[in-house]
Design a protein that fits this description.
The N and C termini lie far apart (145 Å). This protein is α+β, with helices and mostly antiparallel strands. It is 33% helix and 16% strand. Strands 2-1-5-3-4 form a 5-stranded mixed beta sheet, covered by helices on one side. It is built from 5 helices and 5 strands, in the order αββαββαβαα. Among the domains are: 80 residues, Ubiquitin-like (UB roll), CATH 3.10.20; 40 residues, Get5 dimerization domain (GTP Cyclohydrolase I, Chain A, domain 1, Orthogonal Bundle), CATH 1.10.286.
């Protein structure tokens, strides 16, 4: 009987207490359930620590550029800083080939790159060189630099120079994508022109 009386008294005491916790209730952290610590997994490649390099000690790379089609290009730019933009690369190629900057597209792994990208965006942490492909839009040929002192012949006189027929053959090769056919057409055109000149 004593146990039953104790149980009734205990239950009545519990009924008198509020069911919900008050708004200002604070739980004692000592009574929190124990939880195992959460450990982050290791990174596959540890992050590199920032380095403060003195001027002139920054890593420089070699940039190789090759064209996919005509005109054939094989250019190597050495000691290029990592913050060099692809627009700067185009400008340097244009200064050597006289191809307009807006006629060039730079590709890396067959994917075109925007002019705003820099070499650091393309290279890995330890790469010392990179190879790009250059696509010349519309097959734009190199622009010849003309000097005021030496004027190029025009009209029929231009056909008397070997440079004219070399340019014609280059144009045919670019349009036909076949060297043998381009050479044959160039030879036929020249023979026809020579025959026309010697005619009555």
């Amino acid at each position: 009987m004593a146990e039953a009386a104790f149980a009734k008294t205990f239950l009545s005491t519990l009924d008198a207490r509020p069911i919900k916790l008050s708004a200002d209730h604070v739980e004692d952290p000592k009574y929190y359930p124990a939880r195992p610590p959460y450990i982050l997994p290791r990174m596959a490649k540890p992050m590199s620590k920032p380095k403060n390099l003195a001027p002139g000690q920054e890593r420089s790379v070699t940039v190789a550029l090759k064209s996919l089609r005509n005109p054939p290009l094989d250019i190597k730019l050495t000691s290029q800083p990592l913050n060099t933009s692809l627009l700067d690369i185009k400008t340097k190629v244009s200064s050597q080939t006289r191809i307009p900057v807006d006629k060039m597209k730079i590709l890396h792994n067959k994917r075109p790159l925007t002019d705003s990208k820099i070499l650091k965006d393309v290279l890995g942490e330890t790469d010392m060189s990179v190879e790009f492909s250059i696509m010349v839009i519309g097959g734009a040929a190199a622009i010849e630099t003309s000097s005021p002192a030496s004027r190029q012949p025009t009209g029929a006189a231009a056909a008397e120079t070997d440079a004219f027929w070399a340019d014609l053959k280059g144009f045919l090769m670019q349009r036909l994508n076949d060297q043998a056919t381009a050479e044959e057409f160039s030879r036929l055109f020249r023979a026809s022109w020579e025959s026309h000149k010697s005619g009555p």
